[in-house]
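Reply to dn_fold:

You asked what the input looked like. This is it:
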Amino acid sequence: MVCKTRDDPLHRMALVPRVMEARGLDVTPAMIAKFRQFDDAAAVEVLEIIYRDEIGHVRIGNYWFRRLCEEQGLDAELQFRELVDLYLGGQAAWAV
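and this is what came back:
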């Protein structure tokens, strides 16, 4: 996705943080729980850091996506849905 959106900051902010990095927020808690079951404190610590970082990435990406839409006179929600359809065939309806 990073390569596909490299020429358009609005597309990048719509899809990398709001979809790709947001997926990390969905799956990381289960990964942390699994590593806790195996008493792998080092893996848990690393995943917790990644999880906190991803929250910030999604927040910042969301801000810049909305800001770019506003600057271009675009409806952010409609634009996001159109970009998800364009790049992902609508397969990220669960995205932020």
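Residues 12-88 form one domain.
Hope that clears it up.
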